[in-house]
Design goal:
Number of helices: 8
Distance between the termini: 28 Å
Number of domains: 2
Number of strands: 20
CATH architecture of the largest domain: 3-Layer(aba) Sandwich
CATH class of the largest domain: Alpha Beta
Shape: globular
Largest sheet: 6 strands, mixed
CATH superfamily of the largest domain: P-loop containing nucleotide triphosphate hydrolases
Structural class: alpha+beta
Radius of gyration: 25 Å
Order of helices and strands: EEEHEEEHHHEHEHEEHHEEEEEEEEEE
Helix content: 10-25%
Oligomer: single chain
Strand order of the largest sheet: 6-7-8-3-9-10
């Protein structure tokens, strides 16, 4: 990994009344990295972002930016800038005036303001709208104004607090691509706070998953999805089937277990485990067939289709396999005849390769 730009060491934030918003967090964020803080509401991710910006103060611990301890540095003197969920653009100013405002109040010369404002507007592809007022623009365009206003100050770290949550679904998808392109173009560190798994997975180079003020796992998007360390991370990142299992034995990197609704099976696991564990398997790894599947080593069970939801490119199927267990299955709709080929009440076989399952011990 390249040189660290942000280093957080044992940072906690406690409020009166015994509320701990951030609990002993340590992490490093690299220069030019697109880093995401992901977690449910109230997990401490926004509090951590505010402490990086200086808008909140750690109860204990250290925050370093660019090798400098930020303990005594106020927000306006930190090499960071923040883009808020609400855009916070001035309605009475033009786009150009909005973007250049931060430079104007710090006494930058007018010619320099004009040059840097033009550069920032070009970065976000809004040069042609420089004379417009915010109320004449779409939500996505106003969000780009807020981005340009933050970038014009040339921060080392750009902090984004749920920047896309106020946009509709189609605009969000477009802005994800624009933010990723913009981060690669300007070459500075982006730290984004979001509760949207798709948002984090599609944009960030690394993600820290938070819960109850603590970091559960830091990894790349693919690692988080395919190799979650805990039941919480597996359940929070995408869709997953979580199946309770009793551990029968462990030998040579394999765990033999009795899984609810599935019977005896072996799953790979390098670390030692207790008497109980959880088997995690993603819906796209499961297969369904009307006849008994052939193949050595397959885990297979009979089931009844309980629900079928058609989403165009995919169908989401829920199969009841008994013992009070339903399995979620995603099927790619590859044929123009449409649909999954199964219907409610149909008897099927559900099967998967145990190599596609993961044994969780936490």
């Amino acid at each position: 990994m390249s040189e660290q730009i942000v280093s957080i060491r044992n940072v906690s934030r406690r409020y009166p009344g015994g509320v701990t918003a951030v609990d002993d967090v340590s992490l490093d964020i690299a220069q030019n990295e697109f880093f995401a803080l992901l977690g449910p509401s109230g997990c401490g991710k926004t509090t951590l972002l505010r402490m990086i910006s200086g808008l909140d103060t750690p109860t204990e611990g250290q925050i370093m930016i660019g090798g400098q301890d930020m303990a005594l540095t106020p927000p306006n003197l930190r090499p960071t800038n923040m883009v808020f969920q609400s855009y916070a653009v001035f309605p009475h100013m033009t786009v150009e005036q909005n973007v250049g405002y931060g430079l104007k109040v710090t006494g930058v010369e007018a010619s320099e303001i004009k040059r840097r404002t033009a550069e920032a507007l070009e970065m976000v592809k809004l040069s042609h709208l420089a004379a417009r007022k915010p109320d004449q623009m779409s939500g996505g365009q106003r969000q780009r104004v807020a981005l340009a206003r933050a970038l014009v100050k040339r921060p080392k770290v750009l902090l984004l607090d749920e920047p896309l949550s106020a946009l509709d679904a189609k605009l969000r998808d477009g802005m994800r691509l624009e933010l990723t392109r913009l981060q690669e173009t300007v070459g500075i560190t982006f730290i984004i706070v979001t509760h949207d798994q798709d948002e984090a997975l599609s944009m960030a180079s690394r993600i820290a998953v938070m819960d109850k003020g603590a970091i559960q796992q830091i990894a790349t998007p693919s690692e988080l999805y395919e190799q979650p360390r805990t039941r919480f991370v597996a359940d929070f990142i995408g869709k997953v089937n979580l199946i309770d299992a009793a551990v029968l034995g462990q030998k040579g990197g394999k765990v033999s277990c009795l899984a609810q609704g599935l019977g005896n099976m072996e799953v790979g696991c390098e670390k030692s485990t207790g008497d109980k564990a959880t088997i995690a398997i993603r819906p796209e790894k499961l297969k369904i067939s009307v006849s008994e599947p052939k193949g050595a080593g397959l885990v297979k069970t009979k089931g009844t289709i309980r629900d079928v939801a058609y989403y165009g490119d995919t169908s989401h199927i829920v199969a009841d396999i008994g013992e009070g267990l339903d399995l979620s299955i995603n099927v790619q709709n590859n044929s123009r005849t449409g649909g999954s080929g199964v219907e409610r009440g149909q008897k099927v076989w559900v099967h998967f390769d145990p190599a596609d399952a993961l044994l969780l011990t936490e």
